[in-house]
Specification:
Shape: globular
Number of domains: 1
Number of helices: 16
Strand order of the largest sheet: 1-2-3-5-7-10
Helix content: 40-55%
Largest sheet: 6 strands, mixed
CATH superfamily: 2-enoyl-CoA Hydratase, Chain A, domain 1
Distance between the termini: 53 Å
Structural class: alpha/beta
CATH architecture: Alpha-Beta Complex
CATH class: Alpha Beta
Strand content: 5-15%
CATH topology: 2-enoyl-CoA Hydratase, Chain A, domain 1
């Protein structure tokens, strides 16, 4: 038994490159070493004519990838080194490369897929979820904002679903992910072995993209049962269209529909635990992101991230939830009402979009 098993496993079978996240004890949280391993392998396979498609999956039965390694980010910030800028720069470059990858890219989303995990899968050409999938951007719960392209893919979800997910940090299951456009196909977890068997025996013709699509049309489904957002979609669109977090909260408090009231009260309780500056920054970022190119969305997130460890709530959030585990973060400021809007403007100051 190896003391330090490989963080990412790689294999080529029947001209398909298989990448497997293998940091099971940490819920496959992604760190700089993993980013570099994935980037190098994807570069090699992109240039290899013998490889016709890529599959990304994870070992372990709980998580595909629970996000970035926040303890490592915390330690880097504590030490005052440049590790976090390096990590974000390379992680965002990898995520952006996946969006543009020249070969079919299958993401097998089986289990918890949060934050940095979403960055790895949202650019995939085939996003397959199982019944165990939980997709979300929970960064506001640790005093951060949804990055890894979240300003792009959340802002482009229908209505205000992306705003709701980003500002609340609440995840969605497989059925909702399919309905709102965060996933493309549903496959029962027990069918993954059958998908592998088919890929292992596929006769690759002119278009591997079409061959994979035909296979998924046979094996998988475009829908799943159990959607939970359907009954509250109109309420989400109404409340989260407001111009500020304070107005969103006031709107939720004014909800009178008896069928929605319990949902709105539970949501208000959740928002009360989130970092005010993180929620406000997230809202402002998503509004801007809707009008930006993918490349500029990543640039905006990097612009915010460079300042965040001194101006945001990340250090306190990680201290409270991961380091000391007292689960009692002292957000600065403690309430959305106490947040000076100028602080948000200051974070975005100096950012210039570059894409035409």
């Amino acid at each position: 038994m190896l003391d330090n098993p490989a963080l990412v496993l790689t294999e080529v079978r029947n001209r398909v490159g298989h990448l497997t996240l293998n940091r099971v004890s940490a819920f496959n949280a992604i760190n700089l070493e993993m980013v570099r391993l994935i980037q190098t392998q994807l570069d090699d396979w992109a240039a290899d004519d013998q490889v016709v498609a890529v599959v990304l999956r994870a070992n372990g039965d709980k998580a595909f990838c629970a996000g970035g390694d926040i303890r490592e980010l915390y330690n880097n910030a504590k030490e005052g080194n440049t590790g976090n800028e390096t990590f974000f720069s390379e992680e965002y470059a990898l995520d952006q490369w996946i969006h543009a990858y020249p070969k079919p890219f299958i993401a097998l989303i089986d289990g918890l897929t949060l934050g940095g995990g979403m960055g790895l899968v949202q650019g995939a050409s085939f996003r397959i979820v199982t019944e165990k999938a939980r997709l979300g951007m929970p960064e506001v719960s640790i005093g951060f904002f949804p990055d890894v392209g979240g300003s792009y893919f959340l802002s482009r979800l229908p209505g205000e679903v992306g705003t709701y997910m980003g500002v609340s940090g609440n995840p969605v299951g497989a059925a909702d992910a399919l309905q709102v456009g965060l996933a493309d196909w549903f496959l029962h977890a027990e069918q993954i072995s059958e998908l592998d068997r088919c890929l292992d025996n596929m006769q690759w013709g002119h278009s591997s993209q079409e061959a994979i699509r035909s296979l998924l049309n046979t094996l998988a489904s475009k829908r799943a049962s159990g959607a939970k957002l359907t009954t509250v979609r109109a309420a989400i669109d109404q409340h989260f269209a407001k111009d500020s977090v304070a107005e969103i909260i006031a709107s939720l408090k004014s909800e009178t529909d008896s069928t929605i009231k319990q949902w709105s009260e539970e949501l208000l309780a959740t928002l009360a635990t989130r970092s005010p500056i993180a929620m406000a920054t997230t809202l402002a970022m998503l509004r801007r992101g809707k009008k930006l190119s993918l490349a500029d969305c990543f640039r905006l997130e990097y612009h915010l991230g460079k300042q965040w460890f001194t101006k945001g709530d990340f250090m306190e959030g990680v201290r409270a939830l991961i380091i000391d585990k007292d689960k009692n973060p002292q957000w600065q400021p403690a309430t959305i009402e106490a947040l000076d809007p100028a602080k948000i403007d200051e974070l975005f100051a100096g950012f210039q979009a570059q894409s035409v």
